[in-house]
């Protein structure tokens, strides 16, 4: 064998040895990288795969190493390297049939980088139906993040898809009515089959007037004798009327003309029925009240038939809203308060998931029951669920700090008495079957660390005051949660106690008494009526009358008779004295910030 032949054989041998070593090294690196990748150690996997991406071989390990390298880069947060790596794969291996995966990843990265149009371009190339769910979710996430209307319009022009049209409509509905493109909204509704409520029960327009007639329906009980007039001057209905009068004057100073018409609802159904039948109420544009059950039952069908908006200024009972889109509650409903309260409790009272719930009567029972139901769905326990009338509120404090005997249920007591009476009547000598002790339930004492928080499902301040006093006297830490409606300018409850116990209040028509608007109203009221306005916790008052007339008078001026067209399209409506109203998804006020007291001032807590 010649020298040249031996040299060529040696070269071949070396190349074969090198090729074998390289193949073994590729296999080792790939397997090590894949193991790290499967263990989600992406930074280490990235380092193993990186040398393989520079190779030109088209064997499967090199190709898949490039893919895993790109994914590892993404997982470690380097979207730029990941994007370039995915694009390099498409260039190096045009015949490798993983275009769907690559285009999906490129679409994902582009969207996360804020390049939504580019992302949609890549996602449009994905033909595999297995990606449909992920693509739809990714597109929705991208579109939901866009608030700019012009950008949404441009995106919809290039990608005429339902989810973009829906987001565009939602953002347009957030604008004030006068800024909304109703022609475009109608077009979106028809072209993309969207359910956009632009009208109300076949009402196409909301008429505007020079003067709006507002009816104030309250149980005044007008009489001519001087003693009765003097009594009326200190009545809550009169104070509410005085507040409403100042509201009319405030509106007039701003160029809004309102005609306030008072209707006494205390004299029974006959007078109100007569007014309804005669048609003298048909010209009303807005009704404040009524507040008594009988009058509400009379006026509800009238309001619905004549399509006149009415607002109940006192109640939280959502039954008033049933089947009448023209009925509103000034306050949040019992359901809304329960839901908002339970949301806070399940987030912040998890350390001890036992709760005590107290309510004052039938008017609060729905709030208490829903709160209990919502907590129990989240693995809380409500071992104490009790009705406590306001005049017996001291029992809450006693239960929290002392051992108390609890009377048996009245129906059970009656049955026990009837049983003994029948034995006596039958001549049984030992008819006294039950002792005095049998008429009492077990004793109740809420032991230390046995409950995590107390929820007062009532707007009566007596219940909250009693609960807070009981909590303050306990050796353990117990949370307190209630509606803020009892929190008034004239309250007797100590701010110091509310702060010390870290009491949490769910804002129910939250009114900041330190604002200039409140100061202006109080000054005008004192100058006009020579007395201070009194903020009631359950009844109407001057603040409330003024707030409703001015706030809703401005809504009438801005949106016309059917102001709910505006309410539905705006998230928050600024009140005159109440901070905000939210009626966008309901006919009760669902603006309910969480409140607490700090440094003798009520402050809002950011949602967490």
Automatic annotation (TrEMBL):
Keywords: Signal
Tree of life domain: Bacteria
Coiled-coil features, chain-numbered ranges: none
N-terminal signal peptide: 1-23
UniProt KW Amino-acid biosynthesis keyword: no
InterPro entries for the chain: Peripla_BP_I (IPR028082), TPR-like_helical_dom_sf (IPR011990)
Gene3D superfamilies: 3.40.50.2300, Tetratricopeptide repeat domain
Protein name: Leucine-binding protein domain-containing protein
Organism encoding this protein: Roseivirga spongicola
């Amino acid at each position: 064998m010649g020298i040249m032949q031996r040299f060529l054989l040696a070269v071949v041998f070396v190349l074969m040895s090198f090729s074998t070593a390289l193949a073994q090294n590729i296999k080792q690196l790939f397997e090590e990288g894949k193991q790290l990748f499967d263990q989600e150690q992406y930074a280490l996997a990235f380092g193993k795969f990186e040398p393989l991406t520079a190779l030109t071989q088209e064997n499967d390990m090199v190709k898949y190493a490039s893919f895993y390298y790109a994914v590892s880069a993404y997982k470690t947060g380097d979207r730029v390297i990941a994007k370039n790596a995915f694009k390099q794969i498409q260039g190096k291996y045009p015949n490798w049939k993983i275009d769907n995966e690559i285009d999906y990843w490129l679409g994902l990265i582009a969207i996360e980088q804020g390049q939504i149009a580019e992302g949609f371009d890549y996602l449009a190339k994905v033909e595999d139906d297995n990606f449909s769910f992920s693509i739809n979710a990714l597109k929705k996430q991208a579109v939901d993040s866009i608030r700019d209307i012009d950008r949404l319009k441009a995106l919809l022009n290039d990608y005429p898809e339902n989810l973009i049209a829906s987001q565009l409509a939602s953002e347009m509905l957030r604008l004030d009515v006068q800024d909304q493109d109703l022609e475009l909204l109608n077009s979106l509704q028809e072209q993309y089959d969207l359910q956009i409520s632009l009208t109300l029960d076949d009402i196409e327009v909301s008429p505007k007037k020079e003067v709006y007639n507002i009816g104030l329906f309250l149980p005044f009980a007008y009489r001519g004798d001087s003693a009765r007039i003097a009594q009326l001057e200190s009545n809550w209905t009169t104070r509410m009327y005085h507040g409403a009068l100042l509201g009319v004057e405030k509106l007039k100073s701003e160029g809004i003309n309102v005609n306030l018409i008072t209707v006494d609802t205390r004299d029974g159904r006959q007078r109100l029925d007569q007014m309804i039948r005669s048609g003298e109420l048909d010209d009303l544009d807005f009704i404040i009240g009524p507040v008594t059950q009988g009058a509400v039952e009379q006026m509800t069908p009238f309001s619905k038939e004549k399509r006149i908006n009415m607002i109940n200024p006192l109640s939280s009972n959502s039954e008033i809203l049933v089947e009448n889109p023209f009925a509103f509650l000034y306050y949040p409903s019992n359901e809304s308060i329960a839901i908002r309260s339970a949301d806070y409790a399940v987030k912040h009272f998890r350390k001890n998931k036992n709760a005590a719930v107290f309510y004052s009567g039938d008017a609060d029972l729905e709030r208490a029951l829903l709160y209990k139901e919502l907590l129990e769905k989240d693995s809380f326990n409500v071992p104490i669920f009790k009705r406590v009338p306001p005049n017996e509120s001291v029992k809450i404090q006693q239960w929290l700090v002392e051992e108390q005997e609890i009377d048996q249920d009245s129906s059970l007591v009656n049955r026990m008495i009837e049983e003994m009476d029948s034995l006596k009547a039958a001549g049984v000598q030992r008819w006294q079957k039950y002792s005095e002790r049998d008429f009492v339930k077990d004793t109740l004492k809420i032991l230390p660390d046995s409950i995590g928080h107390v929820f007062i499902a009532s707007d009566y301040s007596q219940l909250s005051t009693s609960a807070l006093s009981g909590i303050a006297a306990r050796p353990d830490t117990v949370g307190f949660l209630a509606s803020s409606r009892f929190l008034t300018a004239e309250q007797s409850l100590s701010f110091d106690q509310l702060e010390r116990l870290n009491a949490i209040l769910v804002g129910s028509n939250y009114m900041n008494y330190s604002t200039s608007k409140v100061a202006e109203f109080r000054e005008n009221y004192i100058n006009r009526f020579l007395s201070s306005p009194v903020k009631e916790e359950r009844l109407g008052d001057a603040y409330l009358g003024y707030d409703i007339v001015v706030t809703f008078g401005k809504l009438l001026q801005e949106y016309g008779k059917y102001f709910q067209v505006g309410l539905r399209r705006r998230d928050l409506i600024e009140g005159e004295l109440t901070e905000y109203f939210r009626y966008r998804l309901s006919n009760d006020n669902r603006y309910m910030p969480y409140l607490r007291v700090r440094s003798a001032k009520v402050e809002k807590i950011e949602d967490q």
